[in-house]
Amino acid sequence: MLSHKAKLNKYVQVIPLPKSSSDIPVDTKCIVSAWGYIDKEVAMDKLFETNATVLSQRKCLLSYPELSDGMVCAASYHKCTDVNYGDSSGPLVCNGAAQGIVSYGFQFPPSVYTRIAHYLPWIRKTMGQ
Questions:
Q1: What separation in angstroms does the CA of 42 have from each of 45, 69, 108?
Q2: Cα separation, 74 vs 76, whole angstroms
Q3: Which of 19, 74, 103, 121 is the most buried (most CB within 10 A)?
Q4: Contact, 67 vs 73, CB < 8 A?
Q5: Structural domains of the chain, ranges and CATH numbers in brackets
Q6: Residue 64 neighbours by CB distance under 10 Å
Q7: Are 109 and 73 spatial neighbours (Cβ–Cβ below 8 Å)?
Q8: Using alpha carbons only, what angle is made at residue 101 by residues 48 and 25, rounded to the nearest 5 degrees?
Q9: What pLDDT digit, counting tens, does each position of 53-79 carry?
């Protein structure tokens, strides 16, 4: 939570929500950013980001049988990077919109994200639109 209202400028901007509740197409290239740990003992004071690609629900179910419609899987296989301890709540940004929120993973790909589009009706209601 912020200690005071954020001032928008060239460094601080809002990010758009998904335009519809449709699924993110498989193989969509995304960016994940977070402040989590590089390892379990060293907290970071820098924001890190990595590329991630959206996977099919069928492929994700192999690693996460509990996957629901409110979740999406993405992975960064070409590097040994993925979300880590402390990264929860970081954004999954695809095509300029916030499509997911880091939920969990096991320090190796793939990782699970809350699928923002699934919750658009609740978000809009809560925001009073």
A1: 10, 34, 18
A2: 7
A3: 74
A4: yes
A5: 29-127 (2.40.10.10)
A6: 18
A7: no
A8: 100
A9: 999 999 999 989 999 999 999 988 655
Single-letter residue type at 26:
V
- Structure tokens, 96: 């300029």
Query: Cα separations (Å) of 13 from 6, 16, 101, 106, 120?
Result: 9, 10, 17, 31, 20
Which residue has tokens 């809560």? 126
Give the residue carrying structure tokens 């959206």. Answer: 54
Alpha-carbon 102 to chain mean position:
4
Those residues with Cβ within 8 angstroms of residue 73's Cβ, 6 or more apart along the chain or in another chain: 54, 55, 57, 59, 60, 63, 64, 67, 110, 111, 112, 113
